[in-house]
C-alpha cells in the first residue's frame, strides 16, 4: 500500500482531505527527513492502523532506521507527555511544581537532529491538544532555525492526517 492507496480509500465526502494529502506529500517547505518523520509521527498519533500502515509504506523508507525510530518515539513519548502536561496545565496548583517522575530520556537523546525530533513532537502535541507542549515545541523549533512556514506545514500534516483518520472511521467498510 501507499499514499495513493490511502487517497483511494478516502470517501468522497472528505475529498478536500484527499487533495490536502496530495499537496502535503510533495511539499517542499520541509526537507525529506522532516517531512517523512512528520507524516510517520502524526499517523501513529492518529491511532488508525490502516492509515499508519500506508503512511509507513510511503514514508518509512525515506527515513534512516534511526530517524524512523525517532519518529515513532516522538509519537509514543508525546502520547504520554501530552496527557500528563495537559492535566497539570488544566488543574494547576501543586501539580505544576511537582516533578513528573516519568522517564523521557528519548527527548534528550532522540537519535536524530534535535530540531527534527522537536518538530515531530510538535505535530503530535497538536493532534493531542496539549497547549503547553505545543508552545514548548514550537518555541524550540523556531529557536532551532525553522521558519513559521515550516512549522505551519508540520501542523497542516498533523491536521490533515487527523481528518483522514476520522474520515476512514466514518466510511463504511468495503
UniProtKB/TrEMBL annotation:
Its EC number is 1.11.1.28. It catalyses: N(6)-[(R)-dihydrolipoyl]-L-lysyl-[lipoyl-carrier protein] + a hydroperoxide = N(6)-[(R)-lipoyl]-L-lysyl-[lipoyl-carrier protein] + an alcohol + H2O. Pfam families: CMD. It comes from the Bacteria. Keywords: Antioxidant, Disulfide bond, Oxidoreductase, Peroxidase, Redox-active center. One of its GO terms (molecular function) is disulfide oxidoreductase activity. Residues 94-172 form the Carboxymuconolactone decarboxylase-like domain. It is an enzyme of class 1 (oxidoreductase). The keyword Oxidoreductase applies. Disulfide bonds join 130-133. The active site is at residues 130, 133. The keyword Oxidoreductase applies. One of its GO terms (biological process) is cell redox homeostasis. Gene3D superfamilies: AhpD-like. NCBIfam families: ahpD, ahpD_dom. Antioxidant protein with alkyl hydroperoxidase activity. Required for the reduction of the AhpC active site cysteine residues and for the regeneration of the AhpC enzyme activity. Belongs to the AhpD family. HAMAP family: AhpD. PANTHER family: ALKYL HYDROPEROXIDE REDUCTASE AHPD. This is Alkyl hydroperoxide reductase AhpD. It comes from Acetobacter estunensis. The gene is ahpD.
